[in-house]
Structures are given as C-alpha cells and as structure tokens.
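Reagents: none. Just compute today. PF01973 family protein.
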Amino acid sequence: MEVSPEILRYALSIFDYSDFLESGRLRILLSPILEEDLYSAFRGISGFPISFIPHRGSNHWKKNSYEELRFISESFFHKKDVNISTLTRFEKIWTRNFISNLPQLTSMEPIRSLFGICQGKADVLVCGAGPSLILSLNDIKTYRKNLVLIAVDTALMVLWNFGIDPDLVFSVDPQVLNTKYLEGYNGNAKIVFDPTSSYHSLRLPGKFKNGFFTSSPFPLIRILSSKPEEEIGAVDFGGSVSTNAVSLAEKMGARNILLVGQDLSFPNKLAHCKGAVLEERFNHIESRKLRREYHNHKQMTALPVKKAASIQGGEIRTNEKLLIFKKWFEEHPKKIFGSISAKTALF
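Predicted 3D structure written out:
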C-alpha cells in the first residue's frame, strides 16, 4: 500500500515486478483506499495471518499519511474477524431459524416491493433504541403523521407504550431474546424480517407478521429464489439493525432520512433506552449481586473505551463496535439528513 504515486512509479521503474503481479503474489493499492478495494485485494487470502510491515523511511517522512493506511487496514481486518466470529457463533442457529421460518415466509412479500415506494416525496424517520430516545418521544408523537416511521425491534415497545405506532418494524436478530421485543404488540405495523431471525417471532399473535422478508447472504436463501438479491431484494448490512433500517429507507426512495435514538455512545452511562426490553427485564432478574448499574458498566467496558466527537460539542464515550456503525453512517451520506437525538456521536 502506498500513499505517493511518485514513489510507486519510481519503485516500478527500477525493478520488473510483472511476474509477481501476474501470479497474484504482489498486489498494489494506491491511496485513497476504499473498503471495497481491500475486499478485492484480499479476496481468497484474507483468512491467512496478516503482518503489517511499514517502511521506516516513509513513516518518518509522512507519518500521518502512512498511519492512516495502517488504521484503515486494521479496521478492515477487525471487521472481518468480527464477521467470522459471528458466522461461527450463529451458523447452527441461522440454519434452524431459516428452516423453521419457511412456512411463514411463503405468505410474506419480498422486500423489493417496498423499493422506490416513497418516490422522493416522503421523509423517513428511523428509530433506534439508544438512551436518548426517551427524550424524543414527544416530538415523534407530534410529527408522526408527517413521516414514514421505521422502528428497530428493540425500540418497538417503547414507542407503542407511548402511543406511537410505526409503519415498519425491522427484525434481524437470530437469538430467542429477539422475540421478547415483539411480545405484547398488537398494532398495525408490518414486520421487515430477515429469514434467519428467531423463528419464535413469527409465531406470536398479531397482524404485524403479514409483512416483508429480506434476502440474506446465508446460502439456504436460494431455496426461495435462485437470484435472491434481484428477486427478493437486499439491504446493506452494517452490523446493526439500525444500519439495515437506514439502507431500507434509502432504497424506499426517501426524500430525507432522519435518525433518532441512534446515539453510538453511552449517554448517562446507559446502553439502551429506559423502557426497552433489554432494560426492563432487569425488573425481573435484578438481585443483590446483579444490579442494572453493574450490567450497564459491563456493557460499557466490554470493549476498549474510545472517544468520539459529540453533536453537542466536546467528546463522548464510545467503543470500537459503535465506531464501526458510525463509519457506516458516514459512508452513506446521500440522503441521511442527520440525527435528531439530543445526545449522540457526530457523523
């Protein structure tokens, strides 16, 4: 990987690298380097051990530029390791969920039927379950009729208990706990469902199940379609259900996309909004040795602490996982109007 075209040109002029380039043993990337460039360059070899060997002279010459290349690469491989760990952890669960969901999926519509539905004439509000959601509920209720509202499943019951009924509910989590987010809901929203999500969700009572299903990178999706991305429709995956929901809003043809409850940080030392299932379940399991404050502390310290710029100025506490989501939002600025949460990381 090289920052300066002049140095690369000079290096190629003093030695013939043709054989190495043709065999694939040498792959050259020139700045600026995008994530898709790294995917292309490391296709087929990304599973091998990777060593970063900086050129000492170049590092002294333009340290910031070469350190940026290193940071981009390390972030890419960290994300890849997370994806591999996720696949290893959930492969059996995904298979069981997909097979169990098949009968219900046949009565649902492919998500492609939602693409372009807004025609650039409607604004879409994507509602996450971050701690600041509780501060925005009154505003959401006031302007609800002016917006298409997509809620992530974690935020559904917070909205519903406040008298707000979304248009769509996005669900992607394969774990059984995911079903708890939907229990007790009997509104008019339609679910947007990943075929590998918990099969218990589609066995709950309620009209929301007559919704839409997405394509999936999981190979068994070809049972439903030989060309799943074309015939079913796919949304971009950024590691979070909120990124999926924003991608859907983009493909619906939203005029503007607004985000709420997407803090990418830990306001008031909380990980989720008060009233969300993940917080309220502590009403039942909390004990002298398992306090909700301790649980929140564990979530905040599970990964190394990072700092990010706040929308209100200054810095706020976050971590590597949330910074991956932040980077995804920054790379999708086409129609994202911005976060309207009171306390969030700036992107």
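The first helix runs from residue 5 to 14.
Action item: order primers for follow-up constructs.
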